[in-house]
Amino acid sequence: MSQEPPGPRPDAAPDSPGAAPDTPEAPKAGDGAPSPASDAPQEEAEQPQDAWSARRDLYAHSPGIMVGASARFEGGLSGRDQHGVSGGHVVGDVIMGSKTEVYQLGVSSDTHTSGLVPQDSLDRTAALFVPGGDGSAFAGLVERLRAERVLVLSGQHFTGRRTAALMLLNRLGATPVRSLDRDTTPAAVAGLLDGARGHVLCDLTLRRDQPLRDTHLLALRERLVEQDAYLVITVDPAAALDDVSVAQWRPPRSRAVLEAHLAALPTGPAGPGTDAVALLEHGSVKEFLDRGHQLREVAAFARLLARVALGRATGQDLERFSLAALESQVEEWFGDPSASLADKAFLVSLAAFNEAPYALTAELSDVLYALLQKTEDPREPPRVPVFGNAASGRLNRARAERYEENEVTEWGPVAQRKARYRDDRTALVLLREVWTGHPSARPALVAWLDRLADDGRPLVRTRAASTAAVLAASDLPSAMALVISHWATSRRYRQRLVAVNALTLAHFLGAPNILRILGSWCAGSDRRERWTAIRAYALIGPAHPSEALHALRAAARTHFAAGDGLGGDSARLAEEIGELASSVALLLLSPAGGQVLAEMRGWLGDEPALRDLALRSFLSACGHPEDDDPAAPSAPLLEWYAVAAAAHAPQARDLTDLWTAALRDRHHTDAALAVLRTWTWAADRTPRAEAALAALLPDLAETDTDRRRLAHLLRTMPAEDGGTTPPPVAGRLLTVVEPG
């Protein structure tokens, strides 16, 4: 895992946390992209994170929908599907859209207007209404309203609280019902009561300096008694109230609402009848209900079920409805003029940091908010409120939730309070919508992603990459031009690693032409693009081993030829050859390892460039511990040899040939002996490793020179703790190298 400390980059723009406050300019899209003449000697003083730990960070910090608990990059994001699967939905389809009609699921136009509610509307609603639970709680609310005349009903948005308010009045016989305009003050509500038997005031506008008080309710109750009338006021759970006893609205289960809508449909030739009820067992219905959709969406889904039963819609329409409803919700969020810019910035930040610590999401939401403010009015300095947004309220509005879970850090697992959208597809749909549907937000979004890509925290950089990947899958040309390309050519390794991860995730999300881009970069003259491509092949290569090996093989020939091949290469060339070896080593330890091993064995008899790459890569893979744990009892390649040898598989011979070549090659002998020393220490800790090494060593001692080399290693090697006495296992292994 990266050892880079958290915090802003040294050349951080002024709006980043920790930057100098007196610098007026915000970061511009593309900051950090080098010019052709930017190869200053000090430009890469930082050391790149090694390929193994970089891959580990990518696994640990990517969103769950991209890398699920059972998913593996090797062979694709999952072992079954190369596009990633979550909840039965192909991620690529989520990003590309539902490809179906957008259902009108918005709030009805009469929600906040003043006037009489038509009686036929009340009757239709009553026929479909489900009170929730066994109905006793709702019956209790009816009796409370009867006794108190005025009832304040508290519930979340889109949980049916307005419908519940109307039905309370309807059950009480308080009709006709007049809907009152919410844009009034609590003190003025009493003056709006005009003689109707029932009144409903939905989503009363309340401010902290003008809360709804108990004195307001006393005045309302007195007026209602005079008129023999009743009033229900609905409010948000976070509404400003002062000594007011509220009634809590608990919505019914979605399935109960769906069943009620279907039960109300006509039977016989004119209606779907039992066919619609039978559709409740359709797989798409279960998946829809499991998504936790809003009740308005459930009602629309019931109407679609009826259409399917009548033959006016298809099963595919059922399958697509859930995603279409989600898309409609996301469009509603961004199109809502009453939602603040800060709220919309939070939605984007939560999409980028879904399943990440809430505090981090909120922190970086404020950074994006400031950048969006500059886009809206560059003349005004950004103003970010320090307090005022309760986490519970903003998460409920976003249909999100908080939960506790351990977060992987370089100091070990740490318990964190995280936040996530309740529907795991929301983040992908939202990022696609803000990128393709609101291009005016792009300058701020690009500047924000640049800030994230240079953050000191691995989680933040990984989420910059995953966000850019979604943008690339939605609109590859724009994402490459505005975001990924200048990361790939950055002077800073950490930004190039973000480009590597972005391209990798974009490929598995279904973005087109990623392999073509990597192939072009790997064979090109821009060394930073080559570096990025070489690293990316290590992650994408397990799913496309032939393409990856072809590109890495060609790069090895080109760049090995630029050096002397004898260890006297320039530091920059040596670094690039090392990156090639690391990428091939990662491929060797992937599920495509069998194909990679056979290819590497063939390189031993090829030109020096490929022989050198084969041996470097092989020793790098041999030295890598199991599960990236230095204290692991064994090494993957040692285990692989033991299994192959026991099965008399040809891979055992390939592994032996590579070992023999490495030990006999004067440029690699020392590195090979160092790996064998590490394996011997592992054998001292676990009998399984000792048995595997005891089977391997005789195959490596084909000549007297081979035996003397191995015997010298075992006689002279130090103990693992640095002591001069060889570990006991060395003596036992010596007997298999020099029997008798």
What is the structure about, briefly put?
With 740 residues, this protein is an alpha/beta fold. Helices cover 54% and strands 7% of the residues.
Write a structural description.
This protein has a six-stranded mixed sheet. Strands 11-13-12 form a three-stranded antiparallel sheet. It has a two-stranded antiparallel ribbon with strand order 1-2. The protein has 31 helices and 13 strands. Among the domains are: 235 residues, no CATH class; 118 residues, Rossmann fold. The longest helix has 21 residues. A hairpin with a 2-residue loop joins strand 1 and strand 2. The protein is of the alpha/beta class and 740 residues long. The N terminus is likely disordered. Helix 19 crosses helix 21 and helix 22 crosses helix 25.
